[in-house]
Design a protein that fits this description.
Layout: H1 28-34, H2 43-74, H3 80-90, H4 95-109, H5 115-139, H6 143-151, H7 156-167, H8 169-184, H9 188-193, H10 204-214, H11 219-240, H12 244-249
Length: 254
């Protein structure tokens, strides 16, 4: 509404609008968010960037923690109790305490401001819980199985691959759920380790924040992006939820 004179009063004139065409339920917004890499909001690229960060950041700590947990559970070596106590202590170290020193270290060795540095950061922050969870589970496995395998001539690596890993799948799945949720919904680590002014490595959490700040009026893209960001972790959780309780409670009752 325009007028040559200032509007008087605290309220303007009421305008009543009637839609002659009924609303249609379509998937156009989801196609725009997920399948159109050239859309102006950049959500399609941010979605695949988030997958690029999340999948390796979930797999790498699981692989490392599985080997470490087996060594701490079934292999005798000096300083094992001290290592276990150190891992338990690292569980209470705040994430924010290590961000800046770790970023400086990454920049010095040349892996800062990219996916590799982000993967290593998520791996380091997730390893204490992963090792603690898997070690508690592996300790509860029957000792007779491992001893019989050693009598049959199996090496530690063969025991780990052919016996321990299949039996430890509930614990592996439990940690995979947690790590996937943390990395998918992460904003702080992405802001620190994915510094990119061009937007080529922007993840969904950061892109949604930018939509809230600069394009809040484009509510249909914002709502669709938020739903996609929620739907993926929910799919992962409901797919693997049957292993969650089994993995968390392993080793808690003797």
């Amino acid at each position: 509404m325009t007028h040559t004179e200032p509007f008087e009063g605290t309220r303007g004139q009421r305008i009543f609008l009637t839609a002659t065409t009924p609303p249609e339920f379509t998937l156009d917004n989801y196609k725009n968010v997920l399948l159109d890499p050239s859309n102006s909001e950049g959500m399609a690229k941010a979605f695949f960037n988030t997958l690029t960060v999340t999948i390796p950041a979930t797999i790498i700590p699981i692989l490392i923690a599985a080997f470490a947990a087996y060594a701490l559970a079934w292999m005798e070596f000096p300083g094992r109790a001290l290592l276990i106590a150190t891992i338990v202590g690292l569980l209470v170290v705040p994430l924010q305490l290590a961000l800046i020193p770790l970023l400086k270290f990454h920049n010095e060795i040349g892996i800062g401001k990219g996916y590799l540095g982000t993967w290593m950061a998520h791996t380091g922050f997730g390893l204490p819980l992963a090792i603690y969870l898997l070690r508690n589970y592996m300790v509860g496995l029957p000792r007779d199985i491992i001893e019989n395998a050693k009598v049959d001539g199996a090496s530690d690596f063969q025991i780990f691959v052919k016996i321990i890993l299949p039996l430890s799948f509930p614990a592996l799945a439990s940690f995979a759920i947690f790590q996937f949720l943390w990395t998918w919904n992460d904003l702080l680590v992405a802001l620190v380790f994915l510094i990119d002014s061009t937007g080529e490595t922007t993840v969904m959490t950061k892109q949604i924040v930018e939509l809230l700040g600069t394009r809040g009026g484009n509510w249909e893209i914002l709502a669709t992006s938020a739903f996609v960001s929620i739907a993926v972790p929910l799919m992962v959780f409901f797919t693997m939820q049957k292993y969650l309780v089994r993995g968390l409670l392993a080793g808690s009752v003797k």
